Amino acid sequence: MFKERLQKVRNLNPLIHNITNYVTANDCANILLACGASPIMADDIEEVEEITSICSGLNINIGTLNQRTIPAMIKAGKKANKLGHPVILDPVGVGASKLRCDTALKLIEEVKFTAIRGNISEIKVLALGKGRAKGVDADIEDKISDSNLCAAIKFAKEFSEKVGAVIAITGPIDIVADKNKAYVIRNGNVSMSKITGTGCMVTAMTSAYISANKDNFLEAVAASISAMGLCGELAHSRLKERDGNVTYRNYIIDEVFNLTGDKLEKGAEYKEY
Amino acid sequence: MFKERLQKVRNLNPLIHNITNYVTANDCANILLACGASPIMADDIEEVEEITSICSGLNINIGTLNQRTIPAMIKAGKKANKLGHPVILDPVGVGASKLRCDTALKLIEEVKFTAIRGNISEIKVLALGKGRAKGVDADIEDKISDSNLCAAIKFAKEFSEKVGAVIAITGPIDIVADKNKAYVIRNGNVSMSKITGTGCMVTAMTSAYISANKDNFLEAVAASISAMGLCGELAHSRLKERDGNVTYRNYIIDEVFNLTGDKLEKGAEYKEY
Amino acid sequence: MFKERLQKVRNLNPLIHNITNYVTANDCANILLACGASPIMADDIEEVEEITSICSGLNINIGTLNQRTIPAMIKAGKKANKLGHPVILDPVGVGASKLRCDTALKLIEEVKFTAIRGNISEIKVLALGKGRAKGVDADIEDKISDSNLCAAIKFAKEFSEKVGAVIAITGPIDIVADKNKAYVIRNGNVSMSKITGTGCMVTAMTSAYISANKDNFLEAVAASISAMGLCGELAHSRLKERDGNVTYRNYIIDEVFNLTGDKLEKGAEYKEY
């Protein structure tokens, strides 16, 4: 039940260590607070092990990565693994450069991730070691639709088995899968793609969900992805004529702040496969 | 016609590579999305050439520059030049330190800019190699008014000829000039100076306009500057009693999101010189 | 009188040099503008001396510190000291890692701070050289209440005497003290802790207050802390059913923008000890 997953985040108030980009760091911090967790951002190699040690989970996001922060990501990830902390990866724009691709693949090799969340193009790059990616957005040809849904679920399950992490592929239709089971989630609003950082934000929130729900990572990730989509729907219904993407962003985080287990349970739109 | 310039951004959805400061990166990303473009931020020297290669344009902003990112700016700029991509420079606070001044002058020497946007104090520093600048704001003695407008237009045209870029000087009165022609734009609201990053934001948006309008850079820059000012006016008219500078910032980006070619054409206030 | 302290910020429009974290830099810049000051963010060691020289005050915040920016903080601090500029320290999460603790202690050793602002856990770490800290939030056992208020005031006065800076301990009850006198301030709203960066923001605003009120640092700090709390109350009263922490953040900065000396004088809740 997604309801219990949300409730556990609110009850346990997990502290999340974020090594993330400077574009959306503020939104990620606020959405973590909104969902009931607490954020700390720290990326210097001298402190990441200590920081991650006082936290319950680790969120690694490769947007605006640089050569100073890459070793810090690996060091923090290894430490979190040792401590048994859930770790999530957001491979932002992984198809856009060799540096991002090499970094993401090295991270997956050296760190055991609990979950990986990206758009379909990003996840394909990770799975196939190559792919097309128009910057940080999904390539049109990659989009998941009802006509290729079965293949996409199969792909997600297989990649999950290979890498040992729950795989979350977000987009108009979201797929959350481990090797045995997948959730296909149909929450969300198409306008969410007109806000910077909705991907980063849902990954940050998901890090809180897995940190507070170590008994069932798959359901925790699915609950978080569904919660974000639902908040996107609710926030969209609040928009008035002159509101645009920034007010929409603000309202989404506000809805996360006000989301209850009952609202999530009622609004979640998903099927299991 | 400014209308067509805006419409082309919406039609072509240009992907813009931003090497920019961490203070306003989120607002720049959201305004790019709002105007119809897509942003990617990347500043590591190992990836900037690749990133700029998959984009349509490059936005270089020297706010919070550091010695790691300066060579990345130059490398990205040279690559964009080779590829024929429009490149814009925002010389944030260029008069405030030798590092910023040297960096901006080196950038201008090594990279061919399509456009440069700054306040009058910043543009003077670039043109004269010196100048006064109170941090990131224009010095009062520099302000363009009706009494010195002709001299300012002449200055902008001459600097444009010298540097080979469209020059946009923004402030209470905006001047957008190439060597032959200038637009004097009177859109905007004085309260825009109470928001951090309006300069960075309009430069980011202008990078989208020039990337989508390679047939007429001068008009593209003028359309973008006018659009930002107009959105500043429209957003200001929405403010209620207790709203302040942050709600104003949000509303400006919202207005950019909702701006149409017709609204821009009707609201643009400019004369050609 | 707090009223005059606020008015001086608006009259003098101090330019503040910020070496701060990338999570809340945008909010800090906007709150500085909102209160009547101007921000400039600059952290490269090659330019910090020059930047601080053209400013009236310096704000050093160790959130997302790294080995590149630490020497820049020290260099800027020493320069500000030489010039007689007020300098403030925000020891964000100082108990969370050795790097943060060592950096903060080194800063205090090498730079003379006018004021230091943190939560009780952070200030305890600075004073005792150790302590508990759950990331960037205060530890529950540390919380100041009416039952330990006298001891907390004594602690703040003694630490102020030792370090030679006005000490601001913020939380449900705020204490602002120099060696002789303390203000106990009871403005604010408990939900402010659900917004990222309220601490960073009040420190940034306080840097403006001390820079514009060099005749009475203690009262300047108290006025700023009270002003932030009051704006937290006023903003909270504006929230409607579906608003959450991001709208709350926006409204707080908006209230700072609209705050007058009279409103502050009337709304400030404090006692002197």
From TrEMBL, chains A, B, C:
Its EC number is 2.7.1.50. Keywords: ATP-binding, Kinase, Magnesium, Metal-binding, Nucleotide-binding, Thiamine biosynthesis, Transferase. It comes from the Bacteria. GO terms for molecular function: ATP binding; hydroxyethylthiazole kinase activity; magnesium ion binding. CDD domains: THZ_kinase. Its cofactor is Mg(2+). It catalyses: 5-(2-hydroxyethyl)-4-methylthiazole + ATP = 4-methyl-5-(2-phosphooxyethyl)-thiazole + ADP + H(+). Coiled coil: none annotated. Substrate binds at M41, G197. Pathway: Cofactor biosynthesis; thiamine diphosphate biosynthesis; 4-methyl-5-(2-phosphoethyl)-thiazole from 5-(2-hydroxyethyl)-4-methylthiazole: step 1/1. ATP binds at R117, T170. One of its GO terms (biological process) is thiamine biosynthetic process. Belongs to the Thz kinase family. Catalyzes the phosphorylation of the hydroxyl group of 4-methyl-5-beta-hydroxyethylthiazole (THZ). This is Hydroxyethylthiazole kinase. The gene is thiM.
